[in-house]
Design a protein that fits this description.
Order of helices and strands: HEEHEHEHEE
CATH class of the largest domain: Alpha Beta
Largest sheet: 3 strands, mixed
Helix content: 40-55%
Structural class: alpha+beta
Strand order of the largest sheet: 1-2-3
Distance between the termini: 33 Å
Radius of gyration: 18 Å
Number of strands: 6
């Protein structure tokens, strides 16, 4: 379901970011785009509102794997009261970090798929966010000789790639991670 009033949502995000940037003393600028154009091959992510940040303090946003950038995005989602199933409708980015991370995840999924094909054993990724897990699932969705599942709870939730005909010898596969 689309965001009912995208312009009002963009205005709320703008008010939030103005407050954070001003009172936080951050040297950042941002651009909010409603219904941004995206490349055709990005069917796994089609945000309705894209917030692109830049400036001298960009490194703060990207430090520790983009933790502050993700936190700002999460706060914006809470302000808009979007249900968790619709979090992909808002996307925050800085210096194209999100696109770079998406490409990393797609490449990691490809490496994991080849490893599973070569060894016949399941491959377990390191824990990741629901949005990143979704990217891995979608990157491998057309691989008929494999299947993916999310495993674990909370912050430990990860993706496991299995051969399509895999029959577990025990309850869980051995943990092997890929960054």
């Amino acid at each position: 379901m689309p965001i009912p009033d995208k312009l009002a949502a963009a205005k709320k995000i703008n008010e939030f970011l103005q407050t954070v940037v001003t009172h936080g003393g951050l040297r950042l600028k941002y651009r909010i785009t409603v219904d941004p154009p995206l490349p055709e091959n990005r069917d796994w992510e089609r945000p309705e509102i894209l917030v692109d940040l830049a400036g001298p303090d960009s490194a703060l946003l990207l430090d520790r794997g983009g933790e502050l950038l993700r936190a700002l995005e999460l706060l914006a989602l809470e302000i808009l009261r979007l249900p968790s199933g619709e979090h992909e409708k808002i996307s925050f980015d800085c210096h194209n970090q999100r696109s770079i991370r998406l490409e990393e995840l797609r490449m990691a999924a490809s490496v994991a798929a080849e490893t599973v094909r070569r060894t016949g054993a399941p491959y377990t990724f390191a824990p990741m966010s629901s949005r990143e897990r979704r990217i891995v699932h979608l990157a491998l969705r057309d691989q008929t000789d494999l299947h993916t599942e999310s495993d674990g709870e909370g912050m430990r939730r990860c993706v496991v790639v299995y051969p399509a005909d895999y029959k577990p010898a025990s309850a869980k596969p051995a943990k092997r991670t890929i960054p």
